[in-house]
Specification:
Largest sheet: 8 strands, mixed
Number of strands: 19
Mean pLDDT: 92
CATH superfamily of the largest domain: Glucose-6-phosphate isomerase like protein, domain 1
Structural class: alpha/beta
Bound molecules: D-altro-hept-2-ulose 7-phosphate, zinc ion
CATH architecture of the largest domain: 3-Layer(aba) Sandwich
Strand order of the largest sheet: 3-4-2-1-5-6-7-8
Number of domains: 3
Strand content: 5-15%
Distance between the termini: 78 Å
Radius of gyration: 39 Å
Helix content: 40-55%
Shape: elongated
Low-confidence stretches: 615-626
């Protein structure tokens, strides 16, 4: 079955690009990525705010791509800066749509911070994992826009929370990776670099003269192009000023500015154009700046191809799709050395990078490029190759698809994780109960026998040497402590027991100099006497240092007691009494060993100090004799 992905793009619908109008990068991103994902086998639903009453609730846009309009606030255009208040309603309505779907969604891909907020709600309610492409980060925007930033103050905190809750964050360029880590404390492994792309069927090299003919532009002049949204941060004024700073050449240099609030380029409709016209007049270049207004998307390739150089010098740019489109049409780019532009444009190869808001630097690079047809030609080739290798939407979709699979593979919804954890806990209890019950059946005899042997040894003034590895080393010390100290009696005589695991100097020296196998045997040889007990804890019965110790003990006529499990191993063969827990699970065997250790202590204390009352007997009435 196809993976079903829910895109959320609360303010940017892919349908906005259908009218031919070049809307923001996010509309293009969402539409193109969905289209390409469908091509490689995903089913994508794009959830976007219902902002036009003439549109139906659900539109089957392409094969396997639907656009779902979600009611949230008035069914009309609302500036994105005022949309956050409607996101709870968006989340509620989106969740009820998702619940009613026959096939469940596998993953949510949120776009922009408000969609990220919705994605968190969806994850909380339906346990669907989510990834996010922020497209722009509030913290970075704040640095550059300051007071002009009209988004709600909580944006940055919400983004920070999203970074924590998201299963993966898609960064669009290396700068985005750095920003996420530096301003949002994102860990590097939460971030995957997935750039933006362009569509090679839409943007491809065209003959320059033909393009100029189509647009009715002069064939002989140098043409530089600025294309994109007309907002101050895009630095269009910088390009106008640079034109004024260029040294005059025999060929006329013209700047074409494409973009604006509407197709109508009157200044009443476009206050930004009015401002730029003022700057052009100041710079003395009014006659060489052409404001072309907003253009249909299918016309953009002619503008890119008609230009000798494409310019984009914003103050900052999360990614910037226009440089890709220009390069795809074979036009070198001079871009600001910021954000995604410094990733897509390779300085000196596919164009140049310049500081933003520096018209002199831009003018100098323009002069270099326009004066060298050979350089322009080489950069053109490099540009076409670079964008077609790294930045097609199909490659972007392949990267995104890989990322989705990675997230889905590692994702276990919280409920499932909890259920699995609970199962594990209950299973451990059940297993332990089982081992206890079976041990009761088969171990009571050997336990009594071992207790008798130890008691008798103590009566003969003999001692107990105890050993084991790992957890069993801890039990060895545990048993020694109970015997030397006291167990259930409030006071009694000390019993001679030594854990052979406790002297780190002996252990390290002997294992370091002669090998680990003899560490216990050596100690048995040193302090063991005939009649003493060697008490070994080993779950497998196969630890060589234990079997060596047993052999030495037998040699010295000591009594050997083993606490084992599994099949008893080699150790069982050397034991006078082997208490073999009927289980093959090391931890369950160890737990049983601890229980048996305590039972042995109870028995030994009872045998040796039968007249003493447990716990309640005051120390003063107890004598120090056996
Ligand atoms: O506590 C545990 C496992 O629960 C471990 O430390 C475990 O005791 C060690 O792996 C031992 O080396 C196992 O030795 P043995 O019980 O097979 O003689
Ligand atoms: Zn353990």
């Amino acid at each position: 079955m196809k993976r079903k992905i829910a895109f959320i793009s609360e303010h940017a619908s892919p349908l906005a690009t259908l009218g031919g109008v070049d809307s923001g990068g996010q509309n293009v991103y969402v539409g193109e990525l969905a289209r390409q994902l469908a091509d490689i086998g995903y089913a994508v639903d794009i959830f976007t705010r219902w902002d036009n009453p003439n549109l139906p609730h659900v539109i089957s846009w392409l094969t396997d791509v639907r656009v779902i309009h979600i009611e949230a606030g008035p069914t009309e255009f609302v500036e994105k800066e005022r949309l956050f208040a409607y996101m709870p309603e968006f989340a509620r309505n989106m969740i009820s749509f998702m619940i009613q779907e026959e096939t469940p969604y596998d993953l949510v891909h949120a776009n922009f911070w408000m969609s990220g907020w919705v994605a968190m709600e969806v994850k909380k309610t339906l346990s669907v994992p989510f990834v996010i492409t922020f497209h722009a980060l509030g913290a970075i925007r704040k640095i550059h826009q300051g007071e002009q930033d009209k988004f709600p103050a909580e944006r940055i905190d919400v983004e920070r929370l999203i970074v924590q809750e998201a299963d993966q964050v898609l960064a669009e360029c290396p700068q985005d990776v750095d920003d996420l880590m530096q301003h949002y404390d994102a860990s590097r492994d939460k971030i995957t670099l997935v750039p933006c792309g362009f569509n090679p069927n839409e943007f491809y090299p065209l003959d320059r003269l033909l393009a100029r003919m189509v647009l009715n532009l002069p064939a002989q002049d140098h043409i530089i192009l600025q294309l994109g949204r007309m907002v101050p941060r895009k630095g269009v004024d910088n390009v106008v000023r640079a034109l004024g700073r260029m040294n005059s050449t025999s060929t006329t240099v013209r700047l074409i500015v494409v973009g604006g609030e509407s197709d109508d380029i009157t200044t009443e409709c476009n206050p930004e154009i009015a401002r730029l016209q003022g700057i052009a007049a100041e710079a003395g270049v009014s006659d060489r700046v052409i404001f072309a207004g907003r253009k249909n998307r299918d016309m953009l390739k002619y503008y890119y191809a008609a230009a000798d150089v494409f310019i984009t010098t914003p103050w900052y740019e999360p990614f910037g799709i226009t440089p890709l489109e220009a390069m795809a049409c074979g036009t070198p780019v001079i871009g600001a050395n910021v954000g995604g532009i410094k990733y897509s444009v390779v300085d000196g190869k596919t164009g140049y990078l310049v500081p933003p808001q520096d018209p002199d630097a831009l003018a100098a690079r323009l002069e270099t490029l326009l004066s060298s047809p050979a350089l322009l030609e080489e950069m053109k080739k490099n540009a076409i190759l670079r964008v077609n290798t790294f930045f097609t939407w199909s490659r972007v979709a392949a990267l995104a698809g890989k990322l989705y699979e990675r997230v889905l593979q590692s994702y276990q919804p919280r409920e499932l994780q909890h259920k699995r954890a609970l199962d594990l806990v209950e299973h451990a209890f059940d297993q332990a109960r089982e081992v206890f019950m079976q041990s009761k059946q088969v171990l009571s005899g050997p336990i009594l026998e071992a207790a008798e042997m130890i008691t008798e040894a103590f009566r003969q003034n003999k001692k107990v040497l105890i050993c084991g590895n790992g957890g069993s080393a801890a039990e060895s010390q545990h048993l020694a402590a109970e015997l030397v100290g006291r167990f259930e009696l409030s006071s009694r005589k000390a019993l001679p027991a030594i854990a052979l695991t406790a002297d780190s100097s002996i252990l390290t020296a002997w294992s370091n100099d002669f090998g680990y196998e003899q560490v216990f045997a050596r100690q048995v040889e040193a302090i063991g006497h005939a009649g003493d007990i060697l008490f070994c804890f080993t779950t497998s019965g196969q630890s060589a240092n234990i079997t060596e110790a047993l052999k030495t003990a037998l040699h010295k006529n000591m009594t050997c007691i083993t606490l084992t499990g599994k099949d008893g191993g080699e150790a069982a063969q050397y034991a006078h009494v082997n208490i073999q827990v009927p289980s093959y699970s090391t931890p369950r065997i160890q737990e049983m060993h601890l229980h048996i250790l305590h039972t042995l202590c109870t028995l030994i204390e009872t045998h040796l100090f039968a007249r003493r009352k447990r716990e309640s007997v005051p120390a003063a009435v107890l004598s120090d004799t056996l």
